[in-house]
Amino acid sequence: xxxxxxxxxxxxxVVAVRVKxxxxxxxxxxxxxxxxxxxxxxxxxxxxxxxxxTEAARRALAEALALPAxxxxxxxxxxxxxxxxxxxxxxxxxxxxxxxxxxxxx
Length: 106
Prior knowledge:
Helices cover 23% and strands 32% of the residues. It is built from two helices and five strands, in the order βββαββα. A five-stranded mixed sheet has the order 2-3-1-5-4. It is globular. The mean pLDDT is 91.
């Protein structure tokens, strides 16, 4: 997938995610009413062991948003399925990208 070069917003963005480890296939899409608000569902094949599912979710989120993986980091939720990821330099259309992913799972 090509990386987007659209203008970035200067403030970091926080994205709520619900991770589903051990899935049959990796998939990003859908919504979950989590403790951090409406969360994007990220299913990963990695097991929930030694942070492997968290790392897989971080990379899957970056890929789904067409962002470099290095710009996405975990803010909270290392040992939880409900996580907050920080996007250091979000693109101007981040809200539209997230909305499309929320709708993709419905």
